[in-house]
Specification:
Alpha-Beta Plaits; 11 helices; 10 strands; elongated; binds zinc ion
Length: 436
């Protein structure tokens, strides 16, 4: 083979060189432009992520973290709006104090790409690593801000608070209903984890609170005069436990007793249980939810207690899977230095209000590896990883991938069109599928 590459075939060599330049240079050039930009902004972004890690503010109270991000983005040239109006039944007062929207227009009409940031902590600190979601998203936003004067379209950074209590609706659901995602063509986010993954599966989820009202009576002197509300809760759990055997493997049904009586010598007149129902698709979750409701009704019927059950307005959904967007992000990850063999499936499924965004707009989430495989989200070990130099290094790679993906959307209108079409087709298919 080597003999065929000698100087006796100059035309052939020229042809190869031209093909290489045509195909390879734009990819290399794009990656260089974005990674140079990342290198320039990375130290600033790290300082912000570290500060959010130290602040460890919990959902709805992320005032300093939100303020720091808003100031940083304003300093980078974004137009930042805080105090976003949202439905009053989801956030008291109808204003999300810790959410924000930062916008930057490019040099003309084009796609709207949204990068979402999360920054809420848990009781044990940033054990879900949301400081790194902010950090990596900020890396992407800051790198792109330097390039936007030469790009068509609009870059939006959405500060989305209160993710950990997402099913209460005060985070992304409130922002969606407030119209703050209107016009988004693609939405990008990252999340730290124990592996690199582009698996988009999340569990749909809905909560149920069952309140049983019975009749108090002395538990020894006159038990025959009482109606035991705690027994109704017990029956509900027993029925749910039996139901579980007949549910699909991905369905999760779990509950706690929140009220079970006050004194041992009084028949409980009030008892309450809270459940969550989850499944990989919303129709299956809804079907299991209806059957759990029947379990609670059985609890009431079997004991003579009355049941109070109001179905919550907010449910979390699974996101729509958008293959062209995942592929674009995969290219971004590979260009950022992640090896194809490192990309793994996700197996320990969770729910997030991210699913609601992904049900409304083409969305992709990048799971990035900051801890050894098997390290659980919300564990102390994950918290330590979220504050480590290795954690930051992975966050920068994830942020670079997000920037590259957004850059591809801004520079390739046909990619945006493919993403939109795939999203619409997947949604139509999901809407047409029968309820199991
Ligand atoms: Zn999280």
């Amino acid at each position: 083979m080597r003999a065929s590459l000698d100087a006796s075939q100059p035309c052939w060599l020229l042809f190869v060189a031209l093909v290489w330049l045509t195909l390879a240079y734009p990819v290399a050039g794009r990656a260089d432009t974005v990674t140079d930009s990342v290198a320039a902004v990375e130290p600033t972004c790290r300082a912000v992520a570290d500060r959010i890690y130290t602040l460890k503010e919990q959902g709805g109270a992320e005032r300093q973290s939100s303020a720091l991000l808003r100031e940083t983005l304003a300093g980078m040239g974004f137009t930042v709006t805080g105090d976003l109006p949202v439905p009053a039944d989801l956030v008291s007062g109808g204003v999300s104090k810790t959410a924000f929207k930062a916008e930057m227009a490019g040099n003309g009409p084009g796609p709207t790409v949204v990068i979402m940031l999360e920054y809420d902590a848990l009781a044990n600190g940033h054990s879900c690593g949301h400081n790194l979601i902010s950090g990596s998203g900020l890396v992407a936003a800051a790198a792109l801000a330097k390039l936007m004067p030469g790009l068509p379209g609009r870059l939006v950074v959405m500060g989305t608070p209160d993710e950990e209590r997402g099913s209460a609706g005060g985070g992304k659901v409130a922002l969606l209903e407030g119209g703050h995602f209107d016009g988004a063509d693609a939405v990008l986010i990252t999340h730290p984890a124990d592996r690199w993954s582009l698996d988009q599966r999340l569990l749909s989820m809905k909560r149920a609170t069952f309140t049983f009202h019975g009749k108090a009576s002395h538990a020894a002197a006159a038990p025959e005069k009482g109606v035991n509300a705690l027994n109704a809760v017990e029956l509900t759990f027993h029925c749910a436990d039996m139901l579980r055997q007949h549910l699909r493997q991905d369905v999760r049904l779990h509950g706690i007793v929140t009220t079970g009586g006050d004194k041992v010598n009084v028949v409980p007149e009030l008892a309450q249980a809270e459940f969550a129902v989850r499944a990989l698709d919303t129709a299956t979750m809804d079907a299991a939810y209806a059957r759990l409701g029947d379990c609670a009704r059985a609890g009431a019927l079997g004991t003579g207690a009355s049941l109070e059950f109001v179905v919550p307005r907010v449910a979390l959904t699974s996101p729509v899977v958008v293959p062209p967007l995942i592929e674009a992000t995969r290219r971004g990850l590979l260009a950022a230095g992640v090896e194809a063999g490192q990309l793994k499936d996700w197996t320990e499924f969770v729910s997030s209000d991210l699913g609601r965004v992904g049900d409304a707009y083409p969305t992709v989430n990048v799971w990035f590896k900051i801890a050894p495989e098997g390290t659980a989200l919300h564990s102390d070990a994950m918290r330590e990883a979220a504050g480590s130099p290795e954690g930051w290094k992975a966050a920068v790679m994830a942020g670079t991938a997000v920037a590259l993906t957004a850059y591809e959307m801004f520079t390739h209108p046909q990619e945006v069109e493919a993403v939109k079409q795939a999203f619409a087709a997947a949604r139509a298919k999901a809407a047409g599928s029968p309820t199991p």
